[in-house]
Amino acid sequence: MTIQENVDLQPYNTFGIKAHAKYFTILRSVGEVPKLLASHIFKNENHLILGGGSNLLFTKDFDGLVVKIEFKGIEVVQESEDEVTLKVGAGENWHAFVMHCVERNWGGVENLSLIPGTVGAAPMQNIGAYGVEIKKIISTVEAFEISTGEPKVFTNAACNFGYRESIFKQHAKDKYLISSITLTLTKKNHHFVTTYGAIKEILKERGVQELSVKQISDAVIHIRKEKLPDPTQIGNAGSFFKNPSIEAELHDSLIKLYPSMPAYTAVDAQIKVPAAWLIEQCGWKGKTFDNIGVHQHQALVIVNYGGGEGEKIWQLAMKIRDSVKEKFGILLQPEVNIIR
């Protein structure tokens, strides 16, 4: 383990923001964790655990130690005729892992194709897309308690998963370093989810008669490529805001004013409204401001066209949030982690 000084973080965040870390190190094996936690710099500086950098926004330089996790490995820990349980290193690329499963016809993660980031970030965020969330398939999360260096295993229930939430974003935030996850996938009798987004339409267009893991994955990849900008081409962190859940009373009053407003039943008798629709109705879709803006095809994505500053992106996000609050009475919450 080598700790570097004054490292440019632009290659390590998909927004492509120029920011520097006072200190920076890469961990490539779990065996390096005790050395990291015992180091003088780690103990005495602020620290940030970094995966793929696909869900954060730097608004300034990071005054502390950035730790990039690159733990690799996909291991079969249990297998039967019907299911397979895998242990996956936190540093594995999420989409590459999904493709590993799709190639083997293992079902459960196909709807989560092409989501940027690493495996270790998946439980933190409870990543989800097209009707599937990782909480449905995850078994355990292995992590190190930062204050003691002790390893701990979190069961699915202990992760306290919610919509784009987990214990690792709540009261355990910054207290654990995730090293691996285990998850159980189907080998046959797959439970396919095709009722969300345009999956069903794409499958129909392609003349698909009998569903398969690969066909659904291909459809999801097609949809995401059409709707979402490739972060290797245009800096972004995917959906900037969460889809808000509102009380039925507010929904009833809004639907009278906006009959075309899409909505879906959520938990606790609440109604989920697409944040992208709210933002688009406020006139933000496709707007550009110098070298930043709102994506022309997906209003939920704020983009950096090159040379954009993190603070200006954050200010734009707050203007969007305020306009939605003023028009609809709904306060949007960022899905992206803001480093301020």
What's the CATH architecture of the largest domain?
Answer: 2-Layer Sandwich
State the helical fraction: 10-25%
Total separate domains: 3
Mean pLDDT, rounded to whole units?
95
SS elements, strand count: 20
Oligomeric assembly: single chain
Strand order of the largest sheet: 6-7-12-10-11
User: What gap, in angstroms, lies between the N and C termini?
Assistant: 27 Å
Rounded radius of gyration (Å): 20 Å
For the biggest sheet, the summary is: 5 strands, antiparallel
Overall, the morphology is globular
Helix-and-strand structural type: alpha+beta
Helices, by number, come to 9
What is the CATH class designation of the largest domain? Alpha Beta
N to C succession of SSEs: EEHHEEEEEHHEEEEEHHEEHEEHEEEHE
DSSP strand content:
25-35%
Uncertain ranges: none
The CATH topology of the largest domain turns out to be: Uridine Diphospho-n-acetylenolpyruvylglucosamine Reductase, domain 3
Write a structural description.
The longest helix has 19 residues. This protein has a five-stranded antiparallel beta sheet, with no helix packed on it. Strands 1-2-5-3 form a four-stranded mixed beta sheet. The model has no long low-confidence stretch (mean pLDDT about 95). The protein folds into three domains: about 70 residues, Uridine Diphospho-n-acetylenolpyruvylglucosamine Reductase, domain 2; about 150 residues, Uridine Diphospho-n-acetylenolpyruvylglucosamine Reductase, domain 3 (2-Layer Sandwich), CATH 3.30.465; about 100 residues, Uridine Diphospho-n-acetylenolpyruvylglucosamine Reductase, domain 1 (Alpha-Beta Complex). The chain is globular, with a radius of gyration of 20 Å. Helix content is about 25%, strand content about 25%. By secondary structure, the chain is an alpha+beta fold.
